[in-house]
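Appendix B, record 7
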Amino acid sequence: DGPYVLAPSAADRLLKLQVRIEPTPRLASGRMKVALAADHGGYELKKALQADPRSAQGHYRLGLVYLKTGQFSNAYQELSRSAELDPGILDAQLKLGEFLFLGRQWDKAQEKARLVLKKEPKNVEAHLLLGKTFAAARDFEKALWEINQALQLDPQRVESHLILGNVYLVKGDRELAESSYRQALKVKEDSVEARLAQLNVPPDFSVG
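Structure tokens (predicted):
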């Protein structure tokens, strides 16, 4: 019957696509380097891909351009092509995992996270993605374990504290959720996301 579907308000806290445009050490060709140096909405990359259509790096980079400009369908297609040509581009795998997570294809999102962790056991984003998929399927014990792994690897990452708080809130642990949001603010005092998360915690009507 598929995974357990969260109520919309709870799901909204978990289903958040985190897009990061990160440098990649190697490029496929000199032509691709030129394309990246003077990219205009992906135009140069598209030209480079016409000359080298099997460039996994080219499809990956074009996918990033589409992500940055909000063309998510095109981004998914390019990242998928990149991962097909070179499964070793782990950031493409992670971004595809986030797309699959947003589409509630949690088993497939888990596959992407596990693929990355097999290559990079200390990959924080992969632990977070895996934790979110477990939380979406109501397996909170595994979800909390994965997110805490991410926090051990990088305790100064605000996103990890926020996701931990969201999972606690969905789980019904209001106090632990608030504690996680406070910790996020200790890491970054001006975090708008952490402030909003605190404000969105429902009041505890059992008190008094």
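Remarks on this record: The radius of gyration is 19 Å. The CA atoms of residues 168 and 174 lie 7 Å apart.
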